[in-house]
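Q: Got a minute? One more chain.
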Amino acid sequence: MMGKGRLEAFSDGVIAVVITIMVLELKVPHEATLAAFDSVLPVLLGYVLSFVYVGIYWNNHHHLFQAVHAISGGILWLNLHLLFWLSLLPFVTAWMGESGVATVPVAAYGIVLLMCAVSYALLEHGLVRMGRANAALARAIGADRKGRLSLIAYACGIALGLLHAWLGVAVYVAVAVAWFMPDPRIERRVGKTGREGP
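A: Always. Here it is, folded:
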């Protein structure tokens, strides 16, 4: 078993780079008019949504590892799997925004969100399977109904996005709102010091 410090530091660094890449995709309007601003509005809205999603993953990743006392080589790969899908968010965010929120880019955006959620669930599952070292996490997560419902919601968002782009976006926004606050299951079990709660 290994310490978790380097994994957390590396993850923080990758997530910071993802946010930096996304903000660099924003282009300033060339004219000081509302009409010029309208042309960049879809890109700006896509950035805001993706920034919220990256923030949610960073926040919950931090809480997740506060309940973890040991990791393994397999966990390092599962964490890299999550970071891979998060690193694709700038690409699909830019595509969705610059397309004017068209159906195929919105569906592609949903696929990346779905895979981020799948990879996060696999990471959780891998940590729980380590047994007693991460027993507090296993008790906190339980059946993870919210996580499973989110996967279903993303799949619905992808399908709806292919029918009407803004319906898909509405589903993605709804899932983001549901996850906006840090996972209370873990906060109840783990205090600020990272020790198991009562």
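A: Residues 63 and 186 are 7 Å apart (CA to CA).
Q: Perfect, thanks.
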